[in-house]
Amino acid sequence: MTLARTAVRGSAASIGGQGFRIVLQLVGLAVLARLLEPADFGVVAMVTAAIGLADILRDFGLSSAAVQAPSVSRGERVNLFWANTGLGLLCTVAVAASTPLLVALYDEPTLAHIVPALSLVLLISGINTQYRADLGRALRFVALASSDVLAQLVGTLVAIAVALLGGGYWAIVAQQLTVAVVALVVNVVSTRWRPGLPQRCTSIRRFFRFGLSVFGTQVLGYAAKNADTVALGAFWGSSVLGGYNRAQQIAVVPLNQINGPLTRVALPMLSKAHLDPARFSRAVLRAQLAGAYGTATVLAFVAGLAVPIVAVLLGPGWSEAAPILALLAIAGVFRSLSQLAYWMFLSSGRPGAQFALDLWAQPVMVAVIVLGASQGAVGAAWAAVAVWPVYWIVGLLVASRSAGLAAGPLVWRAVRALLGVALPAALASWYVSQAIDGPLIALAAGLAAGAALVAVVALAVRPVRRDVAEVVTLVRHAAQRGEKTSPQP
Prior knowledge:
It is found in: Cell membrane. This protein is an all-alpha fold.
């Protein structure tokens, strides 16, 4: 079976699994929004910002290094496992010890209970890191998707149960811990691999060298993506942050649940293709289709239908989240497109080039976002709209030059997708939905109108029609094939 077909099937398996996960997340979000208060979400969001930063240290880029490497020996796998487990334990202890600092930063006493509990996620994820990398390196994308779906299902059910029992913010804490534990158990069963004791005679320095640049890039990127959360919590407190966090959660569902699995598919595929310039160029152009015509279009619908989406998912009392959601969805379109540059940097073995870019670009983004957050939740959302399109263009130009590819075709294909599909979808869905009373009917009518206009554009505009036809062909071919079970390296 060719690498291209494996990539197609992997993409289909990952996106299909994430489709179920998106549904689960949205159902859980809708139920929990009616059982909990905005402040409950806000206090947990204060902690998850710190947890997420420590989680990057826990990984240290070693998962990407393991997937990108042409080969990984058994001794290296064992040592990588213990390295990530040790980093996970270190991060758990460090975050738990930082509890007084976080309580003082946010002036929120309840964090004294939440921080130590959520810090355990870091240890569990540390143990799981190389199991996930092992499945990705073996191209076992169905197994990865199954793990994600099952973990999300069990976590959602646990959260709803705790909320019904009056647990408040503990429902969200229990959800995150449950997801981490279930994912670990399923991945251990799937890999059927048991690490032995660390092997002193086997060096993993090459993985740390690669991971160091990835780690630096991820820290800077995380700061830009979470500066709004930290700043809003510090400036305005848990209630304002809770409303913003729910809008953000809806906006990032397509980003996390589509781009995450696509990264697990795209990175090993592009890494195998990068030694052949012509093959790598074709693979990059094909990889861009998923973000430009997939995630970006979904987010365009979210932007256009923000008002009925908030009314349906979050219910009464959350109307102020609608304009925030619309703005964050627009920013998310360009966050999605910027993922391609990330794939290009890593798959071509040039993480240092992205780190050099982010060393100056991300601090500028953080400064703009913090300035916007000082004006409130809407200000933070507008700041995101301002910075992400610029970062996308700059990142794509630098990544193309670093990988030896022409940036013009990549930029033009993305612009064509935005103008030909995403923009018509957003405008049509907004125009129809705002003229109809009743959020559920408005949502359905807006979706239908947007989809109809996109279909007309796809039929009438030849370049868009070719792109859409290629996406449809990829999906159809993927649907006709099952997962290939590759031997463990």
